[in-house]
Amino acid sequence: MVEGVVARYGDRTILDGVNLTVQPGEVRAILGGSGCGKSTLLKCCIGLKVPDAGRALMLGQQLETLSEADQRQLLTRVGVLFQYGALLGSITIGENVALPLKEHTDLPPAVITEIVRLKLAQVELSHAENLLPSELSGGMRKRAALARAMALDPALLFCDEPGAGLDPLTSAELDELLLRMRDRFGMAIVVVTHELLSIRKIADKALMLSQGKVIADGTLQEVIDTDHPEVRAFFSRQAAGELRGPPSALDVLRGTRT
Amino acid sequence: MAAVPQFKVDQSAEGPVLRLAGTLGRPEVRALVAALQTASTGRATLTLDLSAVVSMDSAIVATLIAGWRQAQARGGKLILGAMSPVAETALAAFRVGPAQKAPPSPPTVIEALGATALSTRSAFLDFLQLAADVTFAVGAALVRRAPLRFSAVIEQAIDIGSRALGIVGLITFLVGLTVAFQSAYQLQQFGAAIYVANLTGVSMVREMAPLMCAILVAGRSGSSIAAEIATMKVQEEVDALQVMGMDPLRYLAVPRMLAMTFTIPLLTAMADLLGILGGFLVGIFYLDIAPVAFINQMLSSMVPWDLVSGLIKSVAFAWGIGLIGLYYGFKVQGGASEVGRMTTASVVASIFYIIVADCLFSVLFYVVL
Fold first, then answer.
1. Residue B103 resides in a domain
2. Could you tell me which chain B residue has the CA closest to the CA of A146?
3. Contacts of residue B97 in chain A, CB cutoff 8 Å?
C-alpha cells in the first residue's frame, strides 16, 4: 500500500522510506509513540498528503495519477474514521451517513434512507438519526462517523486513533464493532493507534514507527517479540526517558553521556 | 555530617578540588557560582567532591551543570569525584536538556520588509489560485456541469440576507439622515436646500449604500464564512469531505458564493431605499420641503447609471468578501486561537478590499468611462 514513502513538512523529514502492506480481511495496526509519523503515514495512505518520494497505493492504485472521475470512484471503496469523527456539524447524523450515498450513487431517496438506518443500527445508533453531532457523546460521534465511513461498504477502512478520548468501556465497544465489521464484510482495516489493549485485541499484524522509520513489522506476536528496545519499551509501557531522551546530570558530570 | 553549607577549594596533584558540604539549595547558588568561578580557571580540570553533601536541590544541580558547560567552553573540564549517596541520587534524578542555540538576532528593517513582501506575494498568489478555483466551480455549477446544492444556496442566502436586513437597514437609514443634515447645513445658506434631495439620492445610490452594506456584510457574513470554514478545517471536516470524494470547494464554497452574489445586491437596493428615506424625512420635517417636490427633485437629478453602478459595485464587493472569507477559512492550521485569528484577519482584509475596490470603481466609472 505504501512503498518507500518519504514525507516531509518543510525541511523536517517525518517519514523516511516506509513500506506498508495490508491484506483483505486483515486488521493492520500502525503503532508508535507520539510524533513518530503515524498520522502522516495515514494521510499518505488516504491521499491527503502526497509523498515526497515513494508511492502510496490505495487498493492497488495511485490516487494522484488518476483522473478526477477515477479518484472519486476509488474513494467510494475506502472509508475513513477520523480521530474525532469529523462529522459535519451543520447536518444531522442521518444526513451525515447519507452524504456519500447521495454524492456517489443514484439510489432513490427511500433506499438511501433505509441504508442509513441499516448503518446506524449496525453501530447501535438507531435513535440518533435526527440528532446533530453536537447532541451526541464522544463515543457516539465516533460510532456515527464509523457508520458514515461504512456507508458505501468499503473494501478498505482506515481508523485514526479510534479509541482517543474514549473511556475504556466505550473504546472496547468500538474495538468489538471493528472486529464485527471485519468478520462480516471481510474488509481490510488499518488502525493508527497507541493503545496497547486495543492493539492486542484487534490487530492481526502491526507496523511500528519510530522517528519516521519502521522498527518492527509483522504479525502482532512477531512485533511484540522483536528484540528492539523501543518496541519492548512500548509494549511493556516503560517510560521513554529511560531509553532515549536527555542524559542525567550524573551521566553528564561523569562524562558517560553528553 | 554537618548540615551547614560549605564550599572549599583545595589543591591536589590532579588539580583544584571544590568540596561541597552540607544542605545545599537555592540560597546557596550565588555562593556556589562564585566558588566555581574561583576554583575553575583556564583549561584546568576541576574536580567536584560531593562526599559531604547532605542534600541538594535542582538549583544546585543546574548550577553544577552550568559550571560544567562554562568549563567546556573554556576548554577546561569539570568532573565528579567522591559523592555521598544523596548527591548521587540528586544528580541521577535530573535530566540535562541540550543547550539551545542563541535565538537569531531580530531582522533589520530591510529584512523585515523583504520577508513581508515575500509572504504577501505568496499569500496573494494563493488567493488568486483559490479565486480561480472557486470561480471555475461556480461556473461549472451554473452551467450544470457539476451538481449544485440549491437548498444550501437558499440556506446561505437566508443566513446572509435576512439576518443582515435589520442592521443594514438601520445603518443606511441613519447614514442617509446624517448626509441630509450635513448637506442641509451648507445648502440652506445659499437658499438651495432643495438640492438636499439631489445629494441624498445620488450619494446614497452611487456610493454610501453599496459601501456601508458591504462593510456591514464583511463584518457579519464575511467573518461567519471564515469562521465556519476554519472550524471545519480544524475539526477535519474538510479532510472528511475530500476522502469521501467530494470537492470541498463545490460543497462549501459554491453555495456561499452564489448566496453572496444574489443577496448583497438585494441588500444594497434595500439600503438605497432606506438611505433615501432618511434624507427624505430630513427634507420634509426639517427643511419643510414638500414630499412630492423632494421626490421629483431627487428623481430628476438621477440617471439609471447611478443605480446600476452601485449594484455593479455591490456584486464586486460580494465576491471579494466571499473569496476573502473562504481564503482565510481554508488557510487555518492549528486550533481555536487560529480560528479567531483568521476570522479577524478576514474582516480586516475584506474592509481594506472594499475601500480599495470602491476607489478603483470611482476612478473607472467617473474618470475613465
1. no
2. B240
3. 246
B79: nearest CB among A48, A89, A255: A255
Question: Which chain A residue is nearest to residue B89, measuring alpha carbons?
Answer: A250
CA B126/CA B128 separation, integer angstroms? 5
The string of pLDDT tens digits covering residues A141-153 is 999 999 999 999 9
CATH at B11: 3.30.750.24
Structure ipTM: 0.84
Q: Is A64 on the interface with B (CB under 8 A)?
A: no
Question: Model-level pTM?
Answer: 0.79
- Helical residues (DSSP H) of B237-335, grouped into ranges: 237-243, 248, 254-281, 291-301, 304-331
Nearest to A86 among B61, B79, B235 (CB): B235
Q: What single DSSP character describes residue B250?
A: I
Query: pLDDT of B44-83, one tens digit each?
Result: 788 999 999 998 888 888 888 888 888 888 888 888 889 9
Which chain B residues are closer than 8 Å to A254 by Cβ? 79-80
Name the DSSP letter for residue A131.
S
How many domains is chain B partitioned into structurally? 2
- Residue that terminates a domain, selected from B62, B93, B124: B93
| Residue B357 to residue B360: CA distance in whole angstroms | 5
Residue A8 pairs in a beta bridge with A13
Q: Report pLDDT for A247.
A: 80
Residues of chain B with pLDDT under 70: 1-2, 99-100, 145, 369
